[in-house]
Amino acid sequence: MADEGYLYLAGFLDEAAVLAAREEILYKFAIVGEIDSVNHPMMDAVLADETYVHEVNAIAFTESLRAGIAYTNVVLAPKLIEFFSGFLGGPARAFDFRWPRFMRTGEFTGIHCDGPYITRGTRNVWSTWIPLGDVPMINGPIMILERSHRLETLRDTYGRRDADRENLGWLSEDPIGLQRSLGGRWLSADFKVGDVLLFGPDLVHSSLDNNSPVRHARLSSDTRYQLASDPPDERYNGADTSNPHGGPRRVFLPGKAAGNNEDFQDEWKLVDKDGRLRRTPAFGRD
């Protein structure tokens, strides 16, 4: 971790448990019409031509994704908690808020470090990226910029900023230009069920575009872990984590959006008084 900025634990999690979480989440996306479970096996996550996600209470829908029993069994797997307890040198805990990601074709996650988003409690906080199903590179898995966690200039400037207080957007929209200026290689892999990628708050990362030629959605999870004795980031821990960035009511539902995520719009969508998504031409296929 110190040398490379990440640990890639291939086959670390129980495959059956991860697939159960995938099935649980995809079942819910099938209900709102995001995937076509009539003409294709649901577990293939083939995108449907029409979606009804705008017609449901998105607050309740996204909460059901995060709170699902099978999904919880993955992100709170005893093996994972025990690993972090050993890695951190004391009892570990996960953030109360979790980030399941459903990425449609043509979508991606912008270039950033986690520090500006999750370190208001402690900087000794660690991210996991868990593919909920096989994620070959054509489906847009995570990619990391090699040894970027060692760049003191970046760590002491961008890495110490606060995304909420400063309306911070993505670090860059040009992966090739950023690589040329910072050095290192962009690294990724064909991820398999059971794999886990761990990294700290200063590692530059993003995702490849989901370029599936057969319109497979990408399903993955981000969760954060820290020492239980360290102060928690109040945005993502406690009795109510449903709207951690404050302001107008929003829900975590990644998808296309206009702009550079300065107001979290790539990942957090505005909802109306009934909890329904406000329609925007840039979101998803709507």
Task: Offer a quick outline of the entry.
With 286 residues, the protein is α+β, with helices and mostly antiparallel strands. Helix content is 23%, strand content 17%. The chain has a single domain, classed as Jelly Rolls.
Output the CATH topology: Jelly Rolls
Principal-axes geometry comes out as globular
Radius of gyration using CA atoms only? 18 Å
Work out the strand percent. Answer: 15-25%
Whole-number mean pLDDT? 94
CATH architecture: Sandwich
Could you explain the architecture of this structure?
This protein is α+β, with helices and mostly antiparallel strands and 286 residues long. It has a single domain (6-270), classed as q2cbj1_9rhob like domain (Jelly Rolls, Sandwich). The protein is 23% helix and 17% strand. The chain has eight helices and eleven strands. The strands form three sheets. Strands 1, 2, 3, 4, 7 and 9 form a six-stranded antiparallel sheet that branches. Helix 1 crosses helix 3. The longest helix is centred in the first third of the chain and has 17 residues, at 15-31. It is globular. The model has no long low-confidence stretch (mean pLDDT 94).
